[in-house]
Design a protein that fits this description.
Blueprint lengths: L1 H17 L5 H10 L9 E7 L2 E8 L2 H12 L6 E4 L2 E2 L4 H15 L15 E6 L2 E8 L2 H12 L6 E8 L8
Parallel strand pairs: 2-3, 2-4, 6-7
Antiparallel strand pairs: 1-2, 5-6
Helix pairs in contact: 4-5
């Protein structure tokens, strides 16, 4: 009877070994979202071309740029990494604008749901007083509302709205 059960288990292991590994894109994405210091003030993007990964986006901490490159290099199947991540300037003024924009957007009842979870879906990027909103929202009205809330923050020079609507066709940047 043991042989019978062993013969039934063996084909299952063989079938699991024949399955292709997880898609390279999913493995890279998983490693990036698991970075411990990735937050609402960072926006990481990547592109996979064969076995080469191109990292892009903006980060608030200089160490996050090197950490992202390091973890992607360790992903099985990646042979080269091109790191084009921009480190946003470190300034007390930008820090104040970041926090004020965060409070304005996520403190508004209609937008609070986007702040739930480990990685909020609306990213706030500030460079020299200029705010860029990136991420995904569920409706065009929410994208416009986030833009209007960011425009009301004192000290903001301009707001660029790169929010994408979930389920809508992607627009070219």
């Amino acid at each position: 009877m043991k042989r019978f059960s062993l013969l039934l288990v063996l084909p299952v292991f063989l079938a699991a070994a024949d399955k292709p590994p997880k898609d390279l894109t999913e493995r890279v994405r998983h490693e990036l979202v698991m970075l411990p210091w990735l937050g609402v003030f960072d926006n990481l993007t990547f592109q996979v071309e064969g076995d080469k990964v191109i990292l892009a986006g903006e980060v608030n901490r200089p160490t996050l740029r090197t950490d992202a490159e390091r973890v992607v290099k360790r992903v099985a199947g990646v042979s080269a990494v091109s790191n084009q991540i921009e480190v946003l300037p470190l300034s007390p003024f930008d820090d104040r604008v970041r926090l004020a924009t965060l409070r304005s957007i996520y403190g508004f009842p209609a937008l609070q749901r986007y702040g739930l979870g480990a990685l909020p879906s609306i990213r706030i990027l500030v460079k020299n007083g200029n705010v860029t909103l990136a991420g995904v929202v569920s409706s065009p009205a929410d994208a416009q509302l986030a833009y209007l809330r960011a425009m009301q923050v004192p000290g903001v020079f301009s707001v660029s709205n790169r929010l994408m609507v979930e389920g809508a066709p992607q627009r070219a940047l």
